Amino acid sequence: MSAHAEALHGGDHHGPPPANQSSRIAPTILGMFLFIGTEAMLFGSFFAAYFFVRVVNPDAPSTWPPAPNEFPQFVAGINTAILVTSSFTMHWALQSIKRNNRRGLQAGLLLTILMGTAFLLTQFIEYAHIGFNTSDGAFASVFFGLTGLHGAHVLVGLLLLTFAANRAFRGHYSPEHHHGVELPGIYWHFVDVMWIVVYVTVYLI
Amino acid sequence: MAGIGIVIAILVTLVAVLIPWLPTSASEQMDRIEFVYWFATVICIAVFALVMAVLLYSVMAFRSPPEDESDGPPIHGNTGLEIAWTVVPAILVIAIGVLSAFVLSKNGEAGPNPLNVKVFAQQFAWRFVYPDDGGLKSGELVLPLDRTVKFEMESADVIHSFWIPDMGQKQDLVPGITTSIIVTPTRTGMFSLVCTELCGVGHATMRATVRVLSQDDFAAWVKERKSGGGKPNAGAAIFAGAGCGGCHTFTPAGSNGEIGPGLDDIVSVAQKAGRDPAEFVREAIVEPGKVITPGYQDGVMPPNYGETLSPEEIDALVAYVTGAKK
Amino acid sequence: MSVIEHTSHDAGHGSGAPPNRRNILMRPGFVRAAWCFALFFLVGLYLVAGIRWLAGWDPVYDWNIIVLVGGLTLAPIGFLLGLGSFDYWLYWISGRPTIPDDHANHGAHTWKDYFKVNTDHKVIGVQYLVTTFIFFTLGGLMAMLFRAELAQPGMQFMDNQTYNGLVSMHAALMIFVFIIPAFAGLANFAVPLMLGAPDMAFPRLNALSFWFLPIAGTMFLCSFLAPGGAFATGWTSYAPLASEQPIGQIFFNMGVQWAGASSILTALNFLVTIITMRAPGMTFWRMPLLVWANFTTSLLVVIATPFIAGSQFFVMFDRIMHTSFFVPADGGYVLGYQHIFWFYSHPAVYIMILPGFGIISEIISVMSRKPIFGYRLMAMSLLGILVLGFSVWAHHMFVAGMADWLRVPMMISTLLIAVPTGVKVFSWLATLWEGRIKLNTPMLFSLGFISMFVIGGLSGIYLASVPITIHASDTYFIVAHIHYVLFGGSVLTVFAGIYYWFPKMTGRMYNERLGKLHFWLTFISFNLTFFPMHWVGLVGMPRRVADYSDRFADLNLFVTISSFALGASVVVFFYNMIVSWARGPIAESNPWRAMTLEWQVSSPPPIFNFDEIPQVVGGPYEYGVPGARHAILTGGGTPAAKEAHA
Ligand code: HEA
Ligand code: HEA
Ligand code: CUA
Ligand SMILES: [Cu+2]
What we know:
The structure holds three protein chains of three kinds. Chain B is α+β, with helices and mostly antiparallel strands. Chain B has helices at residues 2-18, 28-61, 79-107, 215-226, 234-241, 266-272, 277-286, 305-308, 311-321; strands at 115-122, 125-130, 136-138, 141-144, 149-155, 160-163, 170-173, 179-183, 189-195, 207-213, 249-250, 255-256. Chain B is elongated and about 90 Å long. The N and C termini of chain B lie far apart (80 Å). Chain C has a two-stranded antiparallel sheet. In chain C, 63% of the residues lie in helices and 1% in strands. Classes of the chains: A mainly alpha, B alpha+beta, C mainly alpha. One heme-A sits between chains C (236, 349, 352-353, 395-396, 398, 414, 417-418, 421-422, 425, 454, 457-458, 460-461, 463-464, 469, 473, 478, 481-482, 485-486, 489-490) and B (43, 47, 51, 89, 92-93).
């Protein structure tokens, strides 16, 4: 194999031929969408567990959560508001760089990170005061399972945003090249939408 | 090509008919299962013979030497053929499906007057309870001939599965839910019940004996067991009811299980170990994990007899196993 | 690195330190991997202990959790970091200029390059195949061990737990780190070439997905060292048994996560490559069927694999965090595990066969010198299997105690899968018809595959019929079905594919006579090993037992002896591969006179596959059509171009 490769290389820089773009969608964006698809399925498996415990199980509790436990609907509602707002700031950040507004990009990213962190902290405090533990029954298992899985996604989203922000402050990104902001943005919107589904199924219904 | 097809079909049919693929049926349900089985077999033989005939014929008729560089005729497809080989298999499999659905519902019918039997499984023993006969307990499954039996099954720990090969029917026992299954024995004799769901170290040996008796003999058995039988020994009833005989050979109980050590000379075993036989046996029953008999495995004998049996029952059992007359 | 990637670097490259001048401890490689591994393990250990100490939980050192977090999660990440899988990304996220791309980690110049993080899909393909065959050997040798135990009733060499451990390990290795990734390896090699692409869409991600595999396999194997022995709950690892087993069980739970992540990332990569990087003129209806097969498989992987991840998470949570997903006393639901597990693992059996269908389509068409019969229906039937495959999972639960009303619909959809599969079988047969059949090794394996897979598929039809399954479930009949579809099906296609692409991968030709010998030995001993299992199962022998009733003794002895012959047949294969790779005759660029693109470049292909992206002008299988062409290649490096000049 080596002989041939060297003959071709001939020592000097020889790059690959430019690949043909056979679809209008950029590979990175498509990749992110597919990744989100598998993430949605992962949530799907957790929702399936929830469904089995709460619906299919012959001894499913009649009230949800089983008395005397309660889910903090109100605090989680505020948290929902925080997370939804952060989606707007994320959108703003992306629009800013498209219009070559670097300050807007930086501010938008910072705000989003701030709100994401606030969400996580609230969630953590909620856990501490919730009054039951992972070992207190299947309702607690699915509660911590779904909210915990979501929390982990928020954490990953925050990391991605931090990377993007770091680069934003170092002067990267331009109106033409900003996949580095767009991709974490898509992910962040997904995390946000997922939270609404989790909130509605776990806390409200 | 048709010739090859017929030869293959005949060969496969011989294989299908000459080898006794299924155990001799011992239940009505198994009879129906066999019917579906043969129905599917006919279709499968036809499909297999067709595929192999075309394949072998092509290899023989159209083989070309490596040096030959010519190409075959550029045929891209044939709509008629493609429709045919989509539709015909669809019809065949749906026929299998309809027949199966029919048999399935037949096999699930308990009839007007079934005998109810409760089955309890735990790692790694079976227990049976006859609620229609005053809650009679047994470690051996005894069934009357030609009477439909409805089993209601529960598991105490992990998933097990109930199967009597000659009777066909199989059902998992799942912790947390009660499952059920219908069997109508049609042949008297001894059979074995095996656990078919991997349930831990003792899975391979989690078996129980099944005895099918004529209706009269069954009634007699019930009567005997209810009255404590000819053996005026409470320990004997408990030994039979707790399933000890499934694993241990013990001549007084007529059991011949081979999963655990034989108990016939347990007294001398205990004495050799320098222990009081009664204490030794009690410990073996209540805390089986404490001393493991050489050559056997820990974790096989159920560890919870101390809870499922009352102290009096254990006393009686110890007395019975050590041969002390009460 | 492909040009596609350039669009994702928002900033240009600057110059960084050339990686090779750094000292051995800091340079990417196995030395750095070793200390990073240890370091990350310690981080995990103290993280767990620290949190437990702060929260006041007892004991502070809970080894279940430490092994899980430190040993099975963080340490492998440290290993990958040390190996250099993340270097580029770390530069990127820190905003520093990325290392200039001199393609140093692209292509293999010496054999040592195969032990590095390499971004060339051809190298990765070979890495995959070699790794998976190592796991195949180990999994097979375990089968030899437990077959020896099964030669006689009663216990001879091992206790039950060891036996169950060996069976579980056998299946886990075969399924998660042999058959699924072996197909990924073949596809890695062939798909970009067939599409006319210079590489995969995300070469670094591709490298990373490969390196997850040795981690997953090693993790499975390490469970032998765990106190209490290897995981012993079968490859299905049903709850609640799995949450009560000794600690070896979590090596399975986590190993599956690594293998699953690997296949998800690879599948994603395939999908993006196939959608966005086809050569001009390569419409979907001109793609070779191997590409179609991998397209469908990748969709299955992306949709289904997260479900097995979920199921294994729940079992681990039940064990480690004392949750009650599957603890009925606390409101859990035991059958939930099986539904979630099979929602992945049924589609997974198609993940294990569809790429094989693709391989067979390539070979049958080329070796019969005829266009594939009913090309479009062949592609559509793949999609049909994909869709139906998601509606049949509960056929593994016919006796499990699930809702009764689910049985008949699931039976009908399962039976219907015979229809698209039948379309494929009949189309292959019609392709053979009136062809100019070349009976060489790849073709022998393909024909062997068709006949064996039909047997396996037909036993699947028996199993789909609920009354029959009620009798046959969890017996050796299932074991026979498994091996007819997986060995007679998938493994034979892997062999066929390896022989077929061997000249392209290595630039050398394998030994035809040894290849044929391998085929006949395998074919015969395979049938002798697995056919009798149908019988043993139906007359009453359950699966997963080390000890069985005396009346099955003769057949089992026969099976054991045949299985040793089957093992020996594999030796012929390894011998042929190793010797031919080292000293085989130099292969031509297109020994099979095939039309698909990978055969139009040299053997082995140039480092970036094509000097110029080819122009596709027709279908991939136009054998016998006068003047038909699949593609026009330009540029100097390709033999086709050289011939045109001459
Ligand atoms: C490569 C892997 C693979 C493949 C392709 C298949 C294919 C099929 N499988 Fe199999 N299966 C497994 C791997 C696979 N299976 C494994 C590993 C298990 C065990 C898991 C465990 O418990 O450990 C299993 C278990 C399993 C069960 C559960 C049994 C039980 O545990 O109780 C069932 C039940 O329905 C089943 C059915 C089928 C069917 C109907 C097909 C169909 O797709 C087959 C279709 C093909 C054909 C039918 C042949 C070609 C068609 C024609 C020539 C057309 C004409 C045909 C007719 C008219 C009939 N399989
Ligand atoms: C791709 C999948 C695959 C493959 C290839 C195989 C290959 C083999 N399998 Fe396995 N098997 C499974 C997937 C597979 N299996 C699955 C999913 C199960 C279910 C597990 C469960 O219940 O959870 C199973 C279960 C299973 C059982 C049932 C165990 C039980 O239920 O108790 C048995 C029993 O005989 C068996 C045997 C074999 C044998 C003899 C081979 C042989 O083909 C192996 C041949 C290969 C080699 C031997 C290695 C290479 C050889 C050499 C390097 C030569 C040197 C060796 C010698 C000369 C001896 N397998
Ligand atoms: Cu109980 Cu297996
Ligand atoms: Cu299946």
